[in-house]
Amino acid sequence: VEQRVQFNTTSLSPTDVGGGVGLVNTINKRNQFSERIRIYFNAPVGDQWQWNARFFQQKLNIGADNSAALAGNTNGAFDRFWVTGKNILGGTVEMGKMFIFPGKGTFYGTLGDTDGIFYTVKNNKFKFQIGAAKADWALNGSAANATDLNFVDVSYKPTPKSDIGAFWLTHDKAVGIKDIDLFAVNGAIELAN
Question: Which residues pair with 148 in a beta bridge?
């Protein structure tokens, strides 16, 4: 279970607009309270498989109307559900609706939920992941217009506090229209305090 509460006080008023992100005149309180809860479920399915799901309920800071796209989901819903298979050809297979984070978020760090299949192999220092999915998050959950998302992600961790990796990712904005086709290299090191 994850729970977060947050309070903000601002100088914003109904006359302050956020048209760039569709928030025109939706800011109606200078003092705003938000809360979110996520509950994760899992259950074994045989010896190698596990069923997973996430229930969430949230009320975001901006967007007092429950029906607004940015208001959150005050009624609660199961938004992710997938199965995980372990020791499948030496790795882990995940299938269903879930969050992915290839390349530690390089260029594509805000991926929403995707319906797909992902295969991951890890050892002490290396990680290899490949995935194919349909991404409907960019289209407001319109499964009929979900677009293809494919990636390969490789990383190496030479020390416990450093890593380097590379990934290739392609995403179609619509059928036959490329949104992005990229190759990226990323690395990180944790510095001492």
Answer: 134
